């Protein structure tokens, strides 16, 4: 790093390493392999769920606090704090806050206030006597959206008692039953098989392969000349201890070596993946004929990095975030991150997406607070990106990921050599 940065290097030893968490939560099992099409991720919906309306209420009623450049990234890095109660993030709007929402919607007039990036708007409809197309005995907060019929717009009433910002209704995943007779094989290009383990169920072999592949990813980031025989790399989530041990087996370790002294120092670092989104910008503002966008999907428990060329960041039910929303929490925030040149068949956009995957994965491994949204910076989410592309990493990748981490999380994580040891298998 060539910037003249004011940093802290006196870091407690236990916070320099990967943090082994408690038993992994059930939700991390919803992860499916990422589908990487040639044209980026398309999302079929153009409307938001009701949680989008709720999020808009909060945005109107509760102004975001400006960032203090002198505020430290970490006040007490040495303390591995417990996860706070999720209910502390979004609570029921007070009567005064509801009045603010109604007042601002009234001021917006017939045009209304857009709900997220959808084609829906919050509007105020005055009382209408009987005989009108819609009878209203009093003024009414309404949701305006396009109608395919004779009337262009439909106005549905919104009931605001109570308004809740976060509802968790987790349901069990379907148990698939045991699958036996699976084998994990580690075979570098041009070599005979050097490691082979046989398991009696699919889950164990997938875990082992993900640990091996994650370890190889960090080997490749340190030595880009290494070749890899597969097109994809599975990221080991919920296996922090196993990742640490596998890295040690190959003579490496991940270590947090410095922290920016305050958030203002991050302004000296150029954002590495493209043009960083400004506060208030939407995904659609970041997209053009030549540029796509990277975004973050997150809530108190998870963080996920994705890309889009359409500007409609709503996930289908059969992908990772869609499945998570369906089974655990509909109120996942979508945060526009940056505008990125797409390249031929979106190759550059997808390459930067893969680097984002690793940046978010490292934040999970080191149990860092979620600095990507001020409402969530008390939480230490799990990464929900399950897989990334091996071919997207080259001799520049390590610095790109380190710059992203310094810029957004205020820390430098290095891949360092250490004495190796061998397991007897």
Describe this entry's structure for a reader.
The chain has about 425 residues and is an alpha+beta fold. The protein has three domains: about 5-45 and about 270-410, no CATH class; about 95-155, no CATH class; about 180-255, no CATH class. It contains seven helices and 16 strands. It has helices spanning about 50-60, 95-110, 200-220, 240-250, 320-325, 345-365, 395-410, and strands at about 5-10, 115, 120-125, 140-145, 155, 180-185, 195-200, 230-235, 250-260, 275, 290-300, 300-310, 335-340, 380-385, 385-390, 410-415. The strands form five sheets. It has a five-stranded mixed beta sheet with strand order 10-13-11-12-14, with helices on one face. The two termini are about 40 Å apart. Residues about 30-50, about 85-90 and about 160-180 have low confidence and may be disordered.
Question: Quick gist of this model?
Answer:
The protein has 425 residues and is an alpha+beta fold.
Q: Cα-atom Rg, whole angstroms?
A: 24 Å
Low-confidence stretches: 30-49, 87-91, 160-181
Chain-averaged pLDDT: 78
Q: What's the number of domains? A: 3
Kindly estimate the percentage of residues that lie in beta strands according to DSSP.
15-25%
